[in-house]
Design a protein that fits this description.
- The chain has six helices and no strands.
- The protein is mostly helical.
- The longest helix has 40 residues.
- The protein is elongated, with a radius of gyration of 21 Å.
Length: 171
């Protein structure tokens, strides 16, 4: 396989991973914001406390989505290690997410439904970048080499298969 073809295949795999991460992430954001707003409207919890609870619920939701959808082909050995790392990196993401909300609410005095949701969403966005990097790097390890070759074979078009077959023929 040429370097350009290998790069193209890797980019397609990364694109699919990002798309799947995004689907789970968007659903998790929905869970996070719905729980946050329900807690703010139905309880007398302070803003950041309601946000921490909502973040925790969405972390549990996201783990299931990532494990069984986004990274279903990743290594399955060491489930305890995987969960421990997921919780560790999720906690750092929660600190980032809720730190943004805390600074806006208590540091700058921007406390109201619109401001709370804006800064909650901003915090989620910043934390998502960290979470994507840490989950794919440390928690859900990449596929073994043989599985990558199988995934590449699935992604190749018929023309690419033919070109690969012609390149390997000996004349």
């Amino acid at each position: 396989m040429s370097r350009l073809s290998a790069l193209n295949t890797r980019l397609r795999l990364l694109y699919r991973e990002i798309a799947k991460f995004g689907v789970v992430g968007i659903a998790g954001i929905g869970v996070n914001l719905v729980v946050f707003n329900l807690l703010r409207e139905t309880t007398h919890l302070q803003t950041v406390r309601a946000s921490i609870i909502a973040t925790t619920v969405s972390i549990a939701f996201n783990y299931v989505g990532f494990r069984y959808f986004t990274y279903r082909d990743a290594e399955r050995s060491g489930r305890g290690r995987e969960i421990g790392l997921f919780v560790f990196f999720s906690a750092i993401g929660a600190l980032i997410e809720n730190g943004v909300l805390f600074l806006a609410t208590y540091g700058m005095g921007w406390d109201g439904p619109l401001a709370n949701n804006f800064f909650k969403f901003l915090g989620i966005g910043v934390a998502t970048l960290f979470r994507f990097w840490s989950y794919r790097t440390w928690v859900f390890r990449s596929l073994p080499a043989k599985a990558v070759e199988q995934a590449e074979a699935i992604l190749l078009t018929d023309a690419e298969h033919a070109a690969r077959a012609n390149a390997t023929r000996k004349y």
